[in-house]
User: What shape does this take?
Amino acid sequence: MASLTIKNAVKRYGNVEVLKGVSIDLRDGEFLVLLGASGCGKSTLLNMIAGLEDLTEGEIMIGDRVVNDVHPKDRDIAMVFQSYALYPTMTVGQNIAFGLEMRGVPKAERALRVEQVAKTLRMDHLLDRKPAQLSGGQRQRVAMGRALVRDPEVFLFDEPLSNLDAKLRLEMRTEIKRLHKRLNATMVYVTHDQIEALTLADRIAILKDGEVQQLASPAEIYEHPANMFVAGLVGSPPMNFLDITVEAGEAGPAAWVTLRADGADKPVLLDLSAHTARLDGYVGRKVVMGLRPEMISQGTTDAGQCVQCEIDVTEATGADTLCVLNWNNQEVLARGTSGYTKILEGTMDFTIETERACLFDPESGLRLD
Amino acid sequence: MSDAARYSAPRPWSALILRVLLWFVLIVFAIWFLLPAYVVVGTSLKDLDEIRGGSLLALPHELNFSAWRHAWSEACIGVECTGLKPYFWNSVSMALPGVVVSTLLGALTGYALTKWKFKGANLVFALILFGCFVPFQVVILPMAQTLGKIGITNTVYGLILVHSVYGLAFTTLFFRNYYVTIPDELVRAATIDGAGFFTIFHRIILPLSPPIIVVSVIWQFTQIWNDFLFGASFTTGGAQPITVAMNNLVNTTTGVKQYNVDMAAALITAAPTLLVYIFAGRYFVRGLTAGSVKG
Assistant: This one.
């Protein structure tokens, strides 16, 4: 186990800057997820940690050792690849043992450790098979076994679940989480799946265009996204963004919002007094209000402001029923009821928790703090 | 018309006529191509009297292998009456190392060009590829000088070197195109596992290569065995490969032209490549179209 420090990592290919000075500090045993769309530089960063690519500038430290010029095999890392990268001509057992063999571990000890790992991952009956004879999930397991057997300081995962079907992905996700809990090892995990990021990570680093947008715990990222990009990326269904103009209300700042499709109804004045300090100096200016679907819930509660909205379409997912509302020709997702307990149609009461809303500056996209 | 109706309906006459025509054309062409082969084999099994007396197309009276024996161990090539035997072994001892060396080197270059990409790797590949299109005649003079400098003119080793160098362009092309289909992640995984350039090559890449190795071996063996120009240019007398010796055998005539011996010599010369095709031909096609990693 070891900490991992990335200091101002820059990667340039010719004139193209893929990473623009990324700094991340990982404590021993922490699970970091690098989240971002394809081309954001997350895989490049992972490859740099692994030593498969050189840094243009900056420094990477594993423990208190600078590893910039250390060969991948001497960094004491293990990596699980998206395609699993199992050696096709070797059996599962040989695949798992290969890393140990290259490090000159005696044969008897190799066999013992392979057996232990195979037991842990419940695949001891597969050791004599070739990768081509395995299912996707089993291959994934072998890839994990190959990393586990080495007992490295840092585990690196490059989108390890993206080739699996939905059910298996869920299973393996839990497995990885369990593994981290048991080994308590430092792990870096690259994904474009925000649910994976939220469920697995101790901390998430969100990357866009080679820059870290936010580095924080999943709760922090979900509740207090640093900017509109992060807010839109994380959360499913995604956050609703409304352009509003801040007015000076009686109790503090407020904003007029039209809750009907045609705009014919009289707009409703949303109370934003909980954000008084935040909106200081914004009265009369435009801001973007971010409301997660669960902040607009069907029914009247005293958690927020109660309004009447017309339901356009409902989408029942089983556990939850989502309502698509149409506010002044903008689709807004709201959470209806849980389960199928109630028929949702027509105009109904909704409670908007304006207190939990996120407010962003429309120009910079940054969250107002 | 539905499929069921089409298949169950009786064939109309026109279809039958077309079918007969098709078979007729195919059979005519088959005869056209097989006739020379038949004449060569047939003549090699006749004795001279029979050749003179009978028709070219007549079947031999008996299976008479004396012409084969003569061509193999008695016929005169120039002033040496040793038959093709020593030259056959010359060709074997030239072709086998030539095939092995050029295939191994081609695999190694192909591997380096795809899995350890360096700056200008594609340019290097393009230049190597260019070697495929350089005609043999162009390199004869510089090659003769080179062989002279190294001191292996007129030896089998000289020919091995020439064929290895010349074959490298083709074998590199084969292996490079095959290795492009092997995922780079395999090499990355092995690198992290602690394997180096050569370990990855022989533990991971080579075990994946049999289909393309077969292609390279067949191709190179055929090229080297059938080569006449390099053999004729760089060797004389006892060091000549069988193709050159056969030519000399046919040209060395004292008195009567021994057609049966000439034919037998031609068949002996062609036999190894024919056999390679008969036994490994299907792997050749398979290897050319095979991908490397399943699943």
Remarks:
- Chain A touches chain B through 23 residues (CB under 8 Å).
- The CA atoms of residues 121 and 175 of chain A lie 9 Å apart.
- DSSP finds eight helices and 21 strands in chain A.
